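your task:
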Amino acid sequence: MDLLLLNYSSWVGSKFLLFPSKLTPLPSKLRRRRQKLASGKMEVTGTDSEGRQFKNPEEMWREHTGDHTKKTQWYRDGVSYWQDVEASVDGVLGGYGQVNDVDVKGSEAFLQSLFSELFVDGGIGRHLVALDCGSGIGRVTKNLLIRYFNEVDLLEPVSHFLDAARNSLVNENPMASDTHKATNFFCTPLQEFMPEAGRYDVIWVQWCIGHLTDDDFVSFFKRAKIGLKPGGFFVLKENIAQSGFVLDNEDHSITRSDLYFKELFSRCGLHLYKSKEQKGMPKELFAVKIYALVTEMPQKLIKTRSKTQGNRPGIIR
Protein backbone atom coordinates (compact mmCIF):
# COMPACT_ATOMS: atom_id res chain seq x y z
CA MET A 1 0.00 0.00 0.00
CA ASP A 2 1.56 3.18 -1.22
CA LEU A 3 0.04 5.87 0.94
CA LEU A 4 -0.29 9.63 0.86
CA LEU A 5 -2.97 11.42 2.82
CA LEU A 6 -5.20 14.45 2.45
CA ASN A 7 -6.37 16.36 5.49
CA TYR A 8 -8.95 19.17 5.33
CA SER A 9 -8.95 21.71 8.15
CA SER A 10 -12.59 21.16 9.06
CA TRP A 11 -15.08 18.33 9.16
CA VAL A 12 -17.28 18.50 6.09
CA GLY A 13 -19.49 15.49 6.65
CA SER A 14 -17.62 13.21 4.28
CA LYS A 15 -15.30 10.38 5.22
CA PHE A 16 -11.93 11.09 6.80
CA LEU A 17 -9.74 8.60 5.02
CA LEU A 18 -6.28 7.19 5.39
CA PHE A 19 -6.83 4.86 2.47
CA PRO A 20 -8.74 5.25 -0.78
CA SER A 21 -12.45 5.97 -0.51
CA LYS A 22 -14.83 3.72 -2.40
CA LEU A 23 -17.40 6.49 -2.35
CA THR A 24 -15.49 9.38 -3.88
CA PRO A 25 -14.13 9.95 -7.39
CA LEU A 26 -10.64 10.18 -5.91
CA PRO A 27 -9.91 6.94 -4.03
CA SER A 28 -7.00 8.34 -2.16
CA LYS A 29 -3.93 7.73 -0.16
CA LEU A 30 -3.98 11.49 0.03
CA ARG A 31 -5.83 12.35 3.18
CA ARG A 32 -7.66 15.64 3.46
CA ARG A 33 -6.90 17.89 6.40
CA ARG A 34 -9.85 17.26 8.64
CA GLN A 35 -8.05 17.00 11.92
CA LYS A 36 -10.04 18.67 14.71
CA LEU A 37 -7.97 19.37 17.80
CA ALA A 38 -9.45 20.54 21.08
CA SER A 39 -7.50 23.43 22.56
CA GLY A 40 -5.72 22.66 25.79
CA LYS A 41 -5.60 18.93 25.17
CA MET A 42 -2.38 17.04 25.74
CA GLU A 43 -0.27 15.86 22.84
CA VAL A 44 -1.43 12.25 23.28
CA THR A 45 -5.11 13.03 22.71
CA GLY A 46 -6.67 12.16 19.39
CA THR A 47 -9.81 12.25 17.29
CA ASP A 48 -11.52 9.89 14.90
CA SER A 49 -13.35 10.42 11.64
CA GLU A 50 -16.64 10.96 13.46
CA GLY A 51 -15.23 13.70 15.67
CA ARG A 52 -14.93 11.61 18.78
CA GLN A 53 -12.16 12.53 21.20
CA PHE A 54 -9.84 9.98 22.78
CA LYS A 55 -7.84 10.93 25.85
CA ASN A 56 -4.93 8.71 24.79
CA PRO A 57 -3.95 6.05 22.24
CA GLU A 58 -4.49 3.23 24.74
CA GLU A 59 -8.17 4.09 25.00
CA MET A 60 -8.55 4.07 21.23
CA TRP A 61 -6.61 0.83 20.68
CA ARG A 62 -8.50 -0.90 23.48
CA GLU A 63 -11.79 -0.10 21.78
CA HIS A 64 -10.76 -1.12 18.27
CA THR A 65 -8.27 -3.95 18.81
CA GLY A 66 -8.83 -4.93 22.44
CA ASP A 67 -9.30 -8.64 21.78
CA HIS A 68 -8.26 -11.16 19.15
CA THR A 69 -11.50 -10.90 17.19
CA LYS A 70 -11.39 -7.11 17.01
CA LYS A 71 -7.74 -7.06 16.04
CA THR A 72 -8.25 -9.63 13.29
CA GLN A 73 -11.13 -7.58 11.90
CA TRP A 74 -9.06 -4.38 12.09
CA TYR A 75 -6.44 -5.81 9.77
CA ARG A 76 -8.91 -7.56 7.51
CA ASP A 77 -10.84 -4.34 6.97
CA GLY A 78 -7.66 -2.36 6.38
CA VAL A 79 -6.59 -4.61 3.53
CA SER A 80 -10.04 -5.12 2.03
CA TYR A 81 -10.48 -1.37 1.77
CA TRP A 82 -7.94 -1.34 -1.06
CA GLN A 83 -9.53 -4.02 -3.18
CA ASP A 84 -11.50 -1.64 -5.43
CA VAL A 85 -8.63 0.79 -5.94
CA GLU A 86 -7.17 0.98 -9.42
CA ALA A 87 -3.64 -0.39 -9.63
CA SER A 88 -2.06 2.71 -11.14
CA VAL A 89 -0.04 5.68 -9.91
CA ASP A 90 -3.06 7.94 -10.18
CA GLY A 91 -5.18 5.32 -8.46
CA VAL A 92 -2.95 4.71 -5.48
CA LEU A 93 -2.38 8.45 -5.10
CA GLY A 94 -6.10 9.19 -5.30
CA GLY A 95 -6.03 11.26 -8.46
CA TYR A 96 -2.95 13.14 -7.26
CA GLY A 97 -0.53 11.32 -9.50
CA GLN A 98 1.28 14.61 -10.06
CA VAL A 99 2.83 14.42 -6.58
CA ASN A 100 4.76 11.32 -7.60
CA ASP A 101 7.71 13.29 -8.98
CA VAL A 102 7.92 15.58 -5.95
CA ASP A 103 7.79 12.62 -3.59
CA VAL A 104 10.47 10.68 -5.46
CA LYS A 105 12.82 13.68 -5.72
CA GLY A 106 12.52 14.36 -2.00
CA SER A 107 13.16 10.72 -1.15
CA GLU A 108 16.11 10.52 -3.54
CA ALA A 109 17.84 13.54 -2.02
CA PHE A 110 17.37 12.07 1.45
CA LEU A 111 18.64 8.66 0.36
CA GLN A 112 21.71 10.15 -1.32
CA SER A 113 22.66 11.95 1.88
CA LEU A 114 22.34 8.70 3.83
CA PHE A 115 24.50 6.80 1.33
CA SER A 116 27.29 9.34 1.66
CA GLU A 117 27.06 9.48 5.47
CA LEU A 118 26.36 5.88 6.46
CA PHE A 119 27.98 3.73 3.78
CA VAL A 120 31.74 3.50 3.28
CA ASP A 121 32.57 5.05 -0.10
CA GLY A 122 28.89 5.78 -0.58
CA GLY A 123 28.16 2.09 -1.09
CA ILE A 124 30.20 1.91 -4.31
CA GLY A 125 31.35 -1.62 -5.02
CA ARG A 126 28.84 -3.20 -2.64
CA HIS A 127 25.94 -5.45 -3.61
CA LEU A 128 23.09 -3.44 -2.13
CA VAL A 129 19.69 -4.92 -1.30
CA ALA A 130 16.53 -3.09 -0.21
CA LEU A 131 13.10 -4.08 1.03
CA ASP A 132 10.15 -1.92 -0.07
CA CYS A 133 7.44 -2.27 2.61
CA GLY A 134 3.89 -1.43 1.61
CA SER A 135 5.18 -1.37 -1.95
CA GLY A 136 1.80 -1.07 -3.62
CA ILE A 137 2.23 -1.18 -7.39
CA GLY A 138 6.00 -0.79 -7.08
CA ARG A 139 5.96 2.98 -7.56
CA VAL A 140 8.84 3.70 -5.17
CA THR A 141 10.83 0.67 -6.31
CA LYS A 142 10.49 1.52 -9.99
CA ASN A 143 11.17 5.25 -9.69
CA LEU A 144 13.82 5.21 -6.98
CA LEU A 145 15.04 2.10 -5.21
CA ILE A 146 15.86 -0.06 -8.22
CA ARG A 147 18.24 2.64 -9.46
CA TYR A 148 20.30 2.55 -6.26
CA PHE A 149 20.05 -1.08 -5.18
CA ASN A 150 21.11 -4.22 -6.98
CA GLU A 151 18.11 -6.10 -5.65
CA VAL A 152 14.79 -4.90 -4.29
CA ASP A 153 12.24 -7.11 -2.57
CA LEU A 154 8.64 -5.91 -2.46
CA LEU A 155 6.27 -6.50 0.48
CA GLU A 156 2.57 -5.80 -0.11
CA PRO A 157 -0.60 -7.46 1.30
CA VAL A 158 -2.95 -6.38 -1.52
CA SER A 159 -2.60 -9.01 -4.23
CA HIS A 160 -3.68 -6.99 -7.27
CA PHE A 161 -1.23 -4.23 -6.39
CA LEU A 162 1.59 -6.76 -6.12
CA ASP A 163 0.57 -8.35 -9.43
CA ALA A 164 0.76 -4.93 -11.06
CA ALA A 165 4.20 -4.38 -9.54
CA ARG A 166 5.45 -7.72 -10.84
CA ASN A 167 4.08 -7.01 -14.32
CA SER A 168 5.66 -3.57 -14.42
CA LEU A 169 9.05 -4.53 -13.00
CA VAL A 170 9.51 -7.99 -14.52
CA ASN A 171 6.95 -9.22 -17.05
CA GLU A 172 6.69 -6.00 -19.04
CA ASN A 173 10.42 -5.33 -18.85
CA PRO A 174 12.21 -8.42 -20.18
CA MET A 175 15.36 -6.36 -20.82
CA ALA A 176 15.62 -5.33 -17.17
CA SER A 177 19.15 -5.16 -15.86
CA ASP A 178 20.51 -8.25 -14.14
CA THR A 179 22.40 -6.00 -11.77
CA HIS A 180 19.44 -3.82 -10.71
CA LYS A 181 16.27 -5.83 -10.40
CA ALA A 182 13.16 -6.62 -8.40
CA THR A 183 13.81 -10.03 -6.91
CA ASN A 184 11.10 -11.20 -4.51
CA PHE A 185 7.42 -10.27 -4.24
CA PHE A 186 5.95 -11.05 -0.84
CA CYS A 187 2.15 -10.90 -0.53
CA THR A 188 2.26 -10.62 3.26
CA PRO A 189 1.10 -7.96 5.75
CA LEU A 190 3.68 -6.08 7.77
CA GLN A 191 2.52 -7.51 11.08
CA GLU A 192 3.25 -11.05 9.87
CA PHE A 193 6.43 -10.57 7.88
CA MET A 194 9.70 -12.12 9.01
CA PRO A 195 12.69 -11.08 6.89
CA GLU A 196 15.64 -13.21 5.97
CA ALA A 197 18.41 -12.51 8.47
CA GLY A 198 21.06 -10.06 7.31
CA ARG A 199 19.69 -9.58 3.80
CA TYR A 200 18.96 -5.85 3.59
CA ASP A 201 21.06 -2.72 3.54
CA VAL A 202 17.94 -0.56 3.69
CA ILE A 203 14.36 -1.33 4.69
CA TRP A 204 12.08 1.33 3.23
CA VAL A 205 8.66 1.80 4.85
CA GLN A 206 6.44 4.37 3.13
CA TRP A 207 2.78 5.28 3.62
CA CYS A 208 1.70 1.98 5.13
CA ILE A 209 2.63 1.93 8.82
CA GLY A 210 -0.64 3.63 9.78
CA HIS A 211 -2.38 0.28 9.57
CA LEU A 212 -0.35 -1.18 12.44
CA THR A 213 -1.35 -0.97 16.07
CA ASP A 214 1.33 0.41 18.36
CA ASP A 215 2.26 -3.05 19.60
CA ASP A 216 2.55 -4.41 16.07
CA PHE A 217 4.49 -1.31 14.99
CA VAL A 218 7.08 -2.12 17.65
CA SER A 219 7.13 -5.86 16.96
CA PHE A 220 7.48 -5.26 13.20
CA PHE A 221 10.58 -3.11 13.61
CA LYS A 222 12.08 -5.47 16.17
CA ARG A 223 11.68 -8.38 13.74
CA ALA A 224 12.82 -6.28 10.80
CA LYS A 225 16.08 -5.42 12.57
CA ILE A 226 17.08 -9.04 12.05
CA GLY A 227 16.83 -8.47 8.32
CA LEU A 228 19.37 -5.64 8.29
CA LYS A 229 23.00 -6.12 7.39
CA PRO A 230 25.55 -4.61 9.80
CA GLY A 231 25.35 -0.85 9.25
CA GLY A 232 21.97 -1.13 7.54
CA PHE A 233 19.15 1.26 8.34
CA PHE A 234 15.43 1.96 8.03
CA VAL A 235 13.75 4.77 6.15
CA LEU A 236 10.21 5.60 7.26
CA LYS A 237 8.17 8.12 5.28
CA GLU A 238 4.78 9.04 6.64
CA ASN A 239 2.08 11.64 7.07
CA ILE A 240 2.28 13.58 10.32
CA ALA A 241 -0.65 14.72 12.44
CA GLN A 242 -0.32 18.18 13.95
CA SER A 243 -0.72 16.72 17.43
CA GLY A 244 -1.60 13.38 19.01
CA PHE A 245 -3.26 11.16 16.44
CA VAL A 246 -6.12 10.92 13.97
CA LEU A 247 -8.04 7.67 13.52
CA ASP A 248 -9.89 6.74 10.36
CA ASN A 249 -12.83 4.50 11.25
CA GLU A 250 -13.51 3.68 7.61
CA ASP A 251 -10.21 2.13 6.59
CA HIS A 252 -8.82 1.26 10.03
CA SER A 253 -5.68 3.36 10.04
CA ILE A 254 -4.05 6.03 12.16
CA THR A 255 -1.99 9.12 11.46
CA ARG A 256 0.46 9.83 14.27
CA SER A 257 2.23 13.02 15.29
CA ASP A 258 6.00 13.44 15.20
CA LEU A 259 6.22 13.03 18.98
CA TYR A 260 4.06 9.91 18.83
CA PHE A 261 6.43 8.41 16.26
CA LYS A 262 9.48 9.25 18.33
CA GLU A 263 8.00 7.52 21.35
CA LEU A 264 7.45 4.38 19.26
CA PHE A 265 10.98 4.57 17.83
CA SER A 266 12.27 4.51 21.40
CA ARG A 267 10.15 1.47 22.19
CA CYS A 268 11.58 -0.25 19.11
CA GLY A 269 15.13 0.33 20.33
CA LEU A 270 15.86 2.48 17.27
CA HIS A 271 17.84 5.71 17.09
CA LEU A 272 16.68 8.64 14.98
CA TYR A 273 19.67 9.45 12.79
CA LYS A 274 18.06 12.29 10.86
CA SER A 275 14.69 13.47 9.57
CA LYS A 276 13.34 15.93 7.05
CA GLU A 277 9.97 17.26 6.02
CA GLN A 278 8.94 16.61 2.44
CA LYS A 279 8.67 19.87 0.53
CA GLY A 280 6.56 20.78 -2.48
CA MET A 281 3.34 18.96 -1.60
CA PRO A 282 -0.02 20.65 -2.23
CA LYS A 283 -1.09 22.90 0.65
CA GLU A 284 -4.17 20.82 1.44
CA LEU A 285 -2.13 17.78 2.37
CA PHE A 286 -0.94 16.64 5.75
CA ALA A 287 2.74 17.27 6.37
CA VAL A 288 4.92 14.39 5.21
CA LYS A 289 8.11 13.54 7.07
CA ILE A 290 10.92 11.15 6.29
CA TYR A 291 12.99 9.51 9.03
CA ALA A 292 16.27 7.59 8.94
CA LEU A 293 16.46 5.07 11.80
CA VAL A 294 19.51 3.09 12.87
CA THR A 295 20.00 0.29 15.36
CA GLU A 296 23.18 1.90 16.66
CA MET A 297 24.23 5.51 16.26
CA PRO A 298 27.42 5.79 14.12
CA GLN A 299 30.49 6.36 16.31
CA LYS A 300 31.67 9.36 14.32
CA LEU A 301 28.36 11.08 14.98
CA ILE A 302 28.48 10.25 18.68
CA LYS A 303 31.99 11.70 18.93
CA THR A 304 30.98 14.82 17.00
CA ARG A 305 28.01 15.43 19.25
CA SER A 306 30.09 14.83 22.36
CA LYS A 307 32.72 17.28 21.19
CA THR A 308 30.10 19.89 20.34
CA GLN A 309 28.59 19.52 23.78
CA GLY A 310 32.00 19.80 25.44
CA ASN A 311 32.86 23.01 23.59
CA ARG A 312 29.74 24.84 24.69
CA PRO A 313 30.40 27.78 27.01
CA GLY A 314 29.62 27.17 30.66
CA ILE A 315 26.65 28.81 32.26
CA ILE A 316 27.55 31.51 34.77
CA ARG A 317 25.21 31.26 37.75
Residues 7-30, 32-42, 308-317 have pLDDT under 50 and may be disordered.
